[in-house]
């Protein structure tokens, strides 16, 4: 939580909380993270190197699309604040709801979308983009039209609960709000074992968010708004493929449309192709999402790497070898990794770590091609049907992809726990 920078007389103080807009190059640098490189490997015991290789889990090498996302996120917040100058009476009419009741002209809705397969880094891309703002919460010592201090919340990120129910989303939003602001504004709601009126809870949260000038709301795992059963029917080829919304989900969709229609909170959604496809099925929803931009996070492909191998995700990852005799990251190794993982970044990292575990269990202190093959056939064996579907580009097999990779968190928990031993 920070205090805003000194703003010029007559300026919109909400814009001060955004800081300066980053250049494309600066955005890529800000969103990337590369851990310290391994040094003096030969002097470090093997069991310690097993722990050091876990640093690779924090490795994040931003592709250009993430810099574009960061700039889109900034522009969404800037555009939203530009029309919500707290010095203007019309802004407070919007906050109170009087503008809607009187039919006053509201600003155009602002929304953006991030789509990608499970494991390519959608959530990380969105969170890193949001964290490029100087602070999530800004404390204003004084505020137009109000007595005393006031809190401005620049962004909030929430995962849509698996149930897709209004009550569960309301609870998630309230919990995230209280964590971010360090307050207990929603204590009475959260003390309840169960929120019975989800839409009423959502409306109260919205009113609080609007009055504190929320800059961007990020809803992750947007596919959870839709029934799993309807998605399974589509994957199995039953029906015409149109996802069927339950009554609660339809209410939620209308609530989100109202949130953007009112011009009160710019919305960023992220999810898998199933979820994004279902969300954008209605033209009205599609138009609103496109106002802030559509961003596709792709899996790694050799045709996109090619001659740029040394400066690519794989090229940089290849520098993190915790053996005395490393294996060159050449075309052969890169193509093998892509083949064994389908180019899914999270699986690439898992393969890299487990290959090291196999290598460090041998007498020879070296990393070999066979270590990656063995790791894929053992530790990553449950993922092979999904990876095969990606290699074959089979629509029938790809339709089951999300079930195989994203719906079983116990697999990833067991994998990461196992590589720590």
Outline the secondary-structure elements.
Layout: H1 13-16, H2 24-31, H3 46-52, H4 64-82, H5 89-96, H6 98-101, E1 111-115, H7 122-130, E2 137-140, E3 150-153, E4 155-159, H8 166-181, H9 187-190, H10 198-211, E5 216-220, H11 228-235, H12 247-261, E6 267-271, H13 273-279, H14 283-290, E7 294-296, H15 302-305, H16 313-317, H17 331-341, H18 345-360, H19 369-377, H20 384-392, H21 395-398, H22 401-405, H23 409-418
Helix pairs in contact: 2-4, 4-7, 8-10, 10-12, 17-18, 17-19, 18-19
In a few lines, what is going on in this structure?
This protein has 421 residues and is of the alpha/beta class.
Q: How would you describe this protein?
A:
The protein is an alpha/beta fold. The protein has two domains: 13-22 and 64-296, 3-Layer(aba) Sandwich (Rossmann fold); 32-61 and 300-418, no CATH class. Helices cover 48% and strands 7% of the residues. It has 23 helices and seven strands. The strands form two sheets. Strands 4-5-6-1-7 form a five-stranded parallel β-sheet, with helices on both faces.
């Amino acid at each position: 939580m920070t205090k805003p920078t000194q703003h010029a007389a007559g300026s919109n103080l909400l814009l001060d909380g955004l800081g300066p807009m980053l250049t494309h190059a600066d955005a890529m640098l800000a969103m990337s993270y590369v851990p310290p490189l391994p040094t003096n490997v030969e002097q470090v015991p093997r069991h310690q190197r097993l722990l050091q290789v876990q640093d690779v889990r924090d490795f994040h090498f931003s592709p250009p699309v993430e810099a574009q996302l960061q700039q889109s996120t900034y522009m969404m917040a800037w555009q939203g604040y530009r029309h919500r100058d707290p010095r203007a009476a019309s802004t407070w009419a919007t906050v109170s709801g009087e503008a809607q009741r009187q039919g006053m002209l509201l600003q155009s809705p602002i929304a953006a979308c991030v789509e990608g397969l499970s494991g390519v880094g959608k959530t990380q891309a969105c969170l890193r983009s949001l964290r490029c703002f100087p602070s999530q919460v800004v404390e204003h010592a004084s505020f137009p039209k109000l007595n005393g201090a006031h809190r401005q919340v620049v962004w909030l990120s929430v995962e849509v609960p698996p149930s897709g129910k209004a009550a569960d989303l309301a609870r998630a939003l309230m919990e995230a709000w209280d964590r971010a602001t360090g307050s207990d504004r929603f204590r009475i709601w959260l003390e309840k074992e169960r929120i019975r009126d989800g839409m009423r809870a959502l409306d109260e949260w919205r009113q609080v968010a609007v009055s504190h000038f929320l800059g961007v709301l990020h809803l992750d795992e947007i596919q959870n708004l839709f029934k799993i059963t309807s998605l399974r029917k589509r994957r199995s080829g039953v029906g015409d493929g149109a996802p069927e919304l339950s009554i609660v989900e339809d209410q939620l969709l209308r609530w989100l449309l109202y949130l953007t229609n009112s011009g009160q909170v710019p919305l960023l959604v992220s999810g898998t192709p199933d979820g994004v496809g279902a969300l954008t099925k209605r033209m009205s929803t599609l138009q609103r999402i496109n106002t802030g931009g559509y961003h596709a996070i792709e899996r790694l492909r050799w045709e996109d790497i090619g001659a740029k191998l040394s400066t690519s995700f794989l090229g940089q990852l290849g520098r993190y070898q915790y053996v005395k005799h490393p294996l060159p990251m050449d075309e052969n190794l890169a193509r093998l990794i892509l083949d064994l993982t389908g180019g899914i970044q999270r699986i690439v990292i898992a393969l890299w770590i487990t290959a090291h575990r196999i290598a460090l269990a041998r007498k020879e202190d070296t990393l070999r091609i066979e270590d990656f093959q063995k790791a894929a056939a053992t530790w990553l064996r449950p993922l092979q049907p999904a990876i095969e579907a990606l290699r074959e580009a089979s629509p029938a097999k790809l339709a089951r992809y999300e079930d195989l990779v994203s719906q079983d968190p116990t697999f990833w928990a067991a994998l990461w726990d196992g590589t720590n031993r």
